[in-house]
Amino acid sequence: MQKIPTVHFEAASTLAVVVSSNEPLLFLSDDQKVIAASASFCRVFDIDPKTVCGQSLSDIGNGEWAMPQLASLLTATASGSATIEAYEIDFQRSNQKARRLVVNARTLDDGDIDHIRLLLAITDVTDVRAEARLKDDLVRDNAILLQEVQHRVANSLQIIASVLMQSARRVQSEEARGHLHNAHHRVMSIAALQRQLSMSNGGKVELRTYFTQLCQSLGASMIADPERLSIQVMVDDSAVEADVSVRLGLVVTELAINALKHAFPVERPGAIVIAYRSSGKDWTLSVTDNGIGMPAGRDAPKAGLGTGIVEALAKSLHGDIQLSDAGPGTAVTIRHRESAGLRTDLSTAASEPNGLRNAIPAEPTRLAPPI
């Protein structure tokens, strides 16, 4: 008796889902013949919906889908030995620019093991990739321009600093000379920051490198005998935003200048330690010297411009200033604390004898050589 072949009918719901999909989809048999195609696929790839069903994938359109590697992957997917996930192909049609497609394929299991079905999804990512490349190019160009601007600003600041130094050499008044020297050091502080910004990524400044460059600049202009006086830098791996680093750098500049001017009279030897450490959003900046200490009573100096600058900068950083005897010398500490609990603990420590002095070791490990 002759065997009558069984006709396999596709589920109407499956066909309806494929045809009505907003995404380009192809419903394929295991021999890669098209059972159904979504209207989106036909529209995107300029295919006549009336001609696509029953054709082999390689025959669709003008043969642009005849891709041996894609056909091989679909065969492997149908056999269950592979799956196609985010496979990228270059799709080329005659007289048109190549398009970048991302292809995904899965087998559909309807319980009939004799009739394997494949669902092929295609996404055109050409425009998305082009926009991403354009954005990356713009970001890179802006970064280059920003570095160039920062480099030019740093050069301009150095020119200004040189003019201030030349003016200081010409003036007769010691008071005017002192003010010009101070202005020179402040400009050089910002110039050091600009140099650091031009080499940094992401707009953040590494404080260890910045403070080291800053102290080298101060030492070169204010320390005549590096064997007698030195500036040491003790900074952790903290990196802060540029605007914060500007204020911290100016604080260090003012306090270091003050110590160099007043803490070591009559050829007294000594060292200044710049220390910074952070934990989360909390941080501590200190400038400590082992000089003669702060005069008290009637001998105490009047607050000058530098003191006002430090107080204003500390306030803008939401920090508390504490002045203490380092025995010998003076310690100026600025603390910023997010937690009230931590603030209370530190206030208690500060009220104890040598509480602030203990915040900085008497002989710190040098992270930068003496200047």
Automatic annotation (TrEMBL):
Pfam families associated with the record: HATPase_c, HisKA_2, PAS_4
Keyword Phosphoprotein in record: yes
Enzyme class (EC, first level): transferase
Keywords tagged on the record: ATP-binding, Kinase, Nucleotide-binding, Phosphoprotein, Transferase
Any coiled-coil regions, as ranges: none
EC numbers: 2.7.13.3
Domain Histidine kinase/HSP90-like ATPase: 243-340
Lineage: Bacteria, Pseudomonadati, Pseudomonadota, Alphaproteobacteria, Hyphomicrobiales
Protein name listed in UniProt: histidine kinase
Alphabetized GO MF terms: ATP binding; protein histidine kinase activity
Reaction equations catalysed: ATP + protein L-histidine = ADP + protein N-phospho-L-histidine
Disordered, as annotated region: 349-371
Record-linked InterPro entries: HATPase_C_sf, HATPase_dom, PAS, PAS-like_dom_sf, PAS_4, Sig_transdc_His_kin_sub2_dim/P
Domain of life of the native organism: Bacteria
SUPFAM superfamilies found in the cross-reference section: ATPase domain of HSP90 chaperone/DNA topoisomerase II/histidine kinase (SSF55874), PYP-like sensor domain (PAS domain) (SSF55785)
